[in-house]
Amino acid sequence: MENFTLNRRKLGTLATAAAATLAVPALRAQPNLEKPKLAIAVGGKAAFYYLPLTIAEQLGYFKAEGLDVEISDFAGGAKALQAVVGGSADVCSGAFEHTIALQSKGQYYTAFVLQGRAPQIAIGVSTKNMPNYKTLADLKGKKIGVSAPGSSTNMVANLVLSRAGIKPTDVSYIGVGTAGAALTAMRTGQIDAMSNTDPVMTMLEQKNEVRIISDTRTLKGTLDVFGGPMPAGCLYASAEFIQKNPNTCQALANAIVHGLKWLQTAGPGDIIKTVPEAYLLGDRALYLASFNKVREAISPDGIVPDEGPRTALRALSSFDPSIKANRIDLRKIYTNSFALKAKDRFKA
Questions:
Q1: What's the CA gap between 223 and 319, in Å, rounded?
Q2: Percent helix, strand and coil across the chain, each rounded to 5?
Q3: Exposure pattern of 235-247 as b/e (b: 16+ CB <10 Å)?
Q4: 295 Cβ contact partners less than 8 Å away, ≥ 6 residues apart
Q5: CA angle, corner 123, sides to 121 and 128, nearest 5?
Q6: Quick one: which of 103, 114, 241, 309 has the most CB atoms within 10 Å?
Q7: Which residue, among 225, 250, 329, 301, has the nearest Cα to 52 in the 3D structure?
Q8: Block means of pLDDT (10 residues each) for the chain, length 348 residues?
């Protein structure tokens, strides 16, 4: 007979799985799922920006809704978007503003449950490459790391730089992902500054490797940068997909809102036990410090705030001439109908 030895990590995993299993009987799967097996594309799954997605996956909330979800992780949100537009994924876990950019190109995609109510993106300059940094003008001609060109990290950098009269073509954007590769790019001097999410930015900040010059990891910081509430991570899909698969979209919204509710009361230890070890980037203490910094940026209920879409449109049209504000129908870029039903179900 084999002798099984359980280490602490395995015990923690089993405890988490047990908690998820106990939660399942109390739930009732969404009836008549049109597409119970589907693919979700995400850009940088280890970032806190997408933590609700990871929680829903790890605690079995998708399965509890009768869904068999395959999550494909890409280097950045722009790459994940391409997967959905190209047809290799059904739904994107990505930045809210992508729905606006897509509509400006005649493609109609709709956000149907929110994960983040602030972008959680910070811009920092390298203390190694730019020790004498004084103003945004100093970034002209520099190399700036982003998760992927065209992603939300790129968008925030464009917005902040535009206020100093710096055009996107005045700098070089380099895709570095949202995890270990981003840390390496900064530490080895491959980039002069970086626009990225946590836990990466807090890890660099606490080791004095970057100087933060713009911060949307808090609601106040987001208001300072955008002038209003800025919806961030969400699940979005084509208008056609949502129309054809309303029960499936409801099940997805239920799982995410269930995860959001769990996050409202989760302690540091709960987070550590639930996320994959690789997400910690080798430093549990700094990972938890990062979580505490962005916690308020996580949506409490999956609902897009009333002023959020207008804030997003104003931000994008301020630096991207291809986006004409008067030609965008904000009613088509999001719906709160699924999140409201999920909120009522879980009393989030």
A1: 18
A2: 50, 15, 35
A3: bbbbbebbeebbb
A4: none
A5: 140
A6: 114
A7: 301
A8: 39 43 47 94 94 98 98 90 96 96 97 97 97 96 94 92 92 93 96 95 95 95 94 97 98 98 92 94 89 93 97 93 94 98 88
